[in-house]
Amino acid sequence: MVLDINEIQKILPHRPPMLLVDRIIEIEPFKSATGIKNITMMEPQFRGHFPGHPIMPGVLILEAMAQVGGVAMLYPEEHRGKIALFGGMEHVKFKRPVVPGDQLVTKAEIVRVRGDFGLLHCDGYVDDKLVASADFKFALKKDEKD
């Protein structure tokens, strides 16, 4: 199953410039998802990170990866209207820089869920090379604005 940006925006509360997943290319709801983020020079972070040598900030790589996992968690109808909140990150590793022109492909797997709490593992790739990996602790919470 493929989800375009319009479908993703029905699931995640994020909006540009903080929506960091462009397409979901594979999903098994509440188990795993694979998504892509096309990195372009037009993104605001590259004005200052770093002029003349643009590199995607690690925190944004992690956020992009977590959002792919968020789609897997929030896709089931019974989870719509909830938000996934970070509870922590472990085993964070950056292997190589991500730069404009790259396509970040994230493979996210839900490792464990107990009630509204869980653990998500994500690996990020550019050109089939591992660029980052992390484990995310999360909590699902009803969106307070509803």
Automatic annotation (TrEMBL):
Predominant place of localization: cytoplasm
Keyword Lipid biosynthesis: yes
SUPFAM superfamilies: Thioesterase/thiol ester dehydrase-isomerase
InterPro entries: FabA_FabZ, FabZ, HotDog_dom_sf
EC number, as in UniProt: 4.2.1.59
GO terms for MF: (3R)-hydroxyacyl-[acyl-carrier-protein] dehydratase activity
Active site: residue positions: 49
Annotated family: Belongs to the thioester dehydratase family. FabZ subfamily.
Function: Involved in unsaturated fatty acids biosynthesis. Catalyzes the dehydration of short chain beta-hydroxyacyl-ACPs and long chain saturated and unsaturated beta-hydroxyacyl-ACPs.
Name of the protein this chain belongs to: 3-hydroxyacyl-[acyl-carrier-protein] dehydratase FabZ
UniProt source species: Selenomonas montiformis
